[in-house]
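W.,

You were right to be curious about this one. When I first looked at the sequence I had no strong expectations either way, so I just let the prediction run and decided to look at it fresh. Below is the sequence, 475 residues in total, followed by the output.
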Amino acid sequence: MKHAPLRDRLGGRPHERRSGRPSARRSARSRDLYVLAAAVLLVTAAGLIGLAIERRDGTLHVGWPPLYATWEPHVGPGTPAALLVAVLVVVYGPPLAARLPWRALLGAVWGTALAWTFSLALVDGWQRGLARRLTTRYEYLNAVDRFSDIPAALRDFTHHILIDSPAHWPPHVAGHPPASTLTFVLLDRIGLGGGAWAGVWCVLVGTSAAVAVLVTVRALASEEMARRAAPFTVVAPAAVWVGASADGYFAGVAAWAVACLALAVTGRRPWAFGLGAGLLFGLTVYLSYGLTLFAVLAGAVLLLGTRRPTVLPWLLAGCAVVPVVFTCLGFDWWEAYRLLVRRYYQGAGGIRPYGYWVWANLACTVLVAGPATVVGLRRTGGVLVGAVRRTGVRARPRPARWSSEVRLSVLAWAALGALLAADLSGMSKAETERIWLPFVMWLLAAGALVREVRVWLAAQAVLALLLNHLLLTGW
């Protein structure tokens, strides 16, 4: 597979550059701006209409539609660090992404993502921004002391999901399979109990998702595409909610499941990576019911890979381990999910209007993913449309012949497809800024196809800084 030369790594789409047609570049830029304008209108409409609905009848249950947040301009100890990280990534990120050795790049990406996420969290201060995030009455830490006997708690788990059941679980415990709560139980058992350690754990695992995305893009598309995407996986508004929510932790686990599968279908140890991917996918669906939609991304990886027959038995074997263990310990995933649906409609989910959130959720995603991602998705969509036009709709897919841009676009749109399925389900009305973090991490990779890289990186950083300094987010 041929890739663009190193000097072109920071530019736009290779076929646009090679064409040498200024009119084509201007047309692409215009389409980018049209799509971005539509996204701005969507966010504006969600905000204005949401405020009107909330003032009229209070059914949205959010303070600053479409985000679960309140208007509270503020600065904090993390402000100088956040500004410094943003400037350094915008100025030095693109050339370093192009020149660093691969392993050094991955380390730099994780380290910078940690610095960015922690600094944004500390804009709200240590207690409010990190240590107390996971200790509210909604969160997992309130149930840790009820897992002194883990097998007994798992056998009894479904008896406390409904809001009218005796000693019902806190909302987030009831709303997820027990692996999410057990994570914090086990942290407590090894001496890392309390909100501070829980928050640090979520940030450490959540920020590693950026590395997993790059590993996947390199394996399935090209190192060129991964290097282009690297700065955009670091500086993104999504970091506001990775630090610190448990969904950031879920995003990290799910991302590494996909990365292991990508290595399995392209690398030398399909059995090891296939088994690892299966174990992580099994854990993923026992962290959050909605992450079963990662089957869409797994399908895209299998489509793009070349060693499917070798990998599938190991993948399926790995996928079975976590469900078998939890089932043997007495937890019934399907029964718990059935009860969760009832619990969801017993609370705010039964009040929040589907007709608003089904499109306002997408406005929320625009804010979380950022303008560069919107433009990148527009460009990946153009790449896919162009590929279909060249080969024909009915032509048999031949992924081995697809360009790196097409392969990256397939990954990004698989994640978008899973996100849209979650949206249409009606089980994600509001709070999707954290709930959809696992999907958004993959949308960020679409930034690899944008032109004027530093401009769009700056736009990402500015939006994140504004959100974090003007609003007090709930997660």
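Here's what jumped out at me. The chain has 22 helices and two strands. And, maybe more interesting for your project: The longest strand covers residues 69-71.

Coffee later to discuss?

I.
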